[in-house]
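Backbone-to-sequence.
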């Protein structure tokens, strides 16, 4: 007999969130319904704890969080259950490669999310959003950029040099952005030679770098073990390449309708898009399957 699903692990951007970067009423209600039926829900995101917490708060939800692609597992209130920073020597090896290809990047640390000069950061992110986003005007693009920096509590340090030499900093994730996909690919090829790191993407215009042990699937396995469950009793749902490690490990995997075709091919089921509440539809499907398995 098929095991009941006891845990739902969901990606955030492109999955739980719609294109307005909010959790729809339908998705929020699906989480509440799952919990009423004894199914835990954990958010597995590339975002920092601060960046992941605010959409949940706005929707009136509290969930466990796997942050920064698996570098941390936290309770909703911020208690750290697991933490895996990058080796400082690796960070110092990554920096010149990204600088060589003039790729903008941010760092997620134990002291917040860091970027360099504000004007450069705003210009870079605005350029990316204006080309890939669905914004009616440049004014809306800029509002999106300012919101991202404000709600993510991003700090601007001007120069990363002092951070690299300060032992009080722990760096959990580096996220790099560029509209030049050829540069990103060449940088990826060089980064892969470093060793000890996981390189993934949440969109075709970025690279996400963490410790090799800091991946969503590995963190999810740690979380369910803490709860006394197995990955066979877990459903994972996502839309992009930084979700692969959990989609491949979960007992039941779901791809969003807006996911790339190769992500859909590795999953057991494909749901609707994030703007059509695909998350909620997948949740109700698994709850129905649970009922049939009893």
């Amino acid at each position: 007999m098929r095991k009941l699903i006891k845990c739902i692990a969901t990606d955030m951007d492109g999955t739980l969130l719609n294109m307005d970067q909010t959790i729809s009423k339908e998705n929020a209600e699906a989480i509440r319904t799952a919990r009423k039926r004894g199914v835990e829900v954990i958010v597995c995101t590339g975002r920092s704890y601060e960046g992941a917490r605010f959409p949940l708060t706005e929707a009136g939800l509290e969930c466990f969080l796997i942050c920064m692609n698996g570098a941390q597992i936290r309770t909703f209130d911020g208690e750290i259950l697991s933490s895996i920073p990058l080796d400082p020597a690796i960070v110092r090896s990554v920096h010149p490669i990204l600088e060589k290809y003039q790729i903008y990047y941010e760092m997620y640390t134990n002291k917040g999310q860091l970027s360099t000069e504000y004007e450069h950061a705003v210009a870079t992110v605005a350029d990316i959003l204006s080309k890939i986003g669905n914004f009616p005007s440049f004014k809306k693009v800029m509002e999106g950029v300012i919101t991202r920096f404000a709600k993510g509590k991003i700090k601007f340090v001007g120069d990363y040099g002092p951070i690299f030499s300060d032992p009080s900093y722990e760096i959990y994730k580096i996220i790099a952005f560029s509209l030049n996909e050829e540069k990103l690919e060449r940088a990826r090829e060089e980064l892969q030679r470093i060793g000890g790191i996981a390189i993934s993407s949440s969109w075709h215009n970025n690279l996400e770098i963490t410790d090799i042990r800091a991946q969503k699937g590995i963190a999810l396995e740690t979380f369910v073990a803490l709860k006394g469950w197995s990955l066979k009793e877990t459903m994972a749902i996502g839309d992009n390449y930084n979700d692969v490690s959990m989609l491949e490990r979960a007992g039941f995997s779901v791809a969003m309708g807006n996911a790339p075709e190769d992500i859909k091919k590795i999953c057991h089921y494909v749901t609707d898009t994030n703007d059509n509440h695909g998350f909620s539809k997948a949740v109700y499907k698994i709850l129905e399957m649970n009922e049939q398995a009893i």
